[in-house]
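If it is no trouble, can you show me the amino acids of a protein and the tokens describing how it folds?
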Amino acid sequence: MGRDDTIMMVVAHSDDQILGPGGAMAKYAKEGKHIITVICSYGEGSHPHFKKEIITKIREQEAERADKIIGGEKIIFFSASDGKIKDEIDSLGLKDSLSKLFIQYKPGKIFTHADDEALPDHIAVNKLVLEVYDTLHTSSKFTADIYSFGVWRFFKLKNRTNPRLVVDISKTFKIKIKALGAFKSQQLAMLSLKWSIYVKAFIHGFKNNVRFAEEFYKIR
């Protein structure tokens, strides 16, 4: 069984964990939960004119600062190439690495990308998480609730009949926005997303009679 006091996020790039469930994670951290984040790629492709080791270090530091803001406990990087996660799952042994982390931390809840996202890396991470989890679950080594979130889509297109998890982030929304500010190298890219973050939080909150909320779909 998973530990109810431990929550794990498995994401593609170093800012996805804030863009998606950042408000919920800040709330869970305030409740005393242990927040563990697994990031498959640094997202170094965002600055192709920089040397890989330079932007990798920048994005690692930004992720660490953001994690500190939301109250996270640990970040683990898998170092897959940006845009090539699907192609490198086997060569980097990502299934085995993630399996070991699931067994080590035994999170009660796991949050990852939805399978209807626009970016191939996001879809690859969704499949990676589910394949690893299903293997462990089938062999009775581990069980948990897995929830999906969207970053680059506004409306949910698939699995809309799945059970929903709604998290009231009225008291942690400002923390999420502050954490996003830690990603200074991504400010231009954030401009195309920031409006949707506000709108989605407001709409989900309105539907659930709170000021701001994040909504997730249970996929396992």
Q: What stands out?
A: The first strand starts at residue 3 and ends at 11.
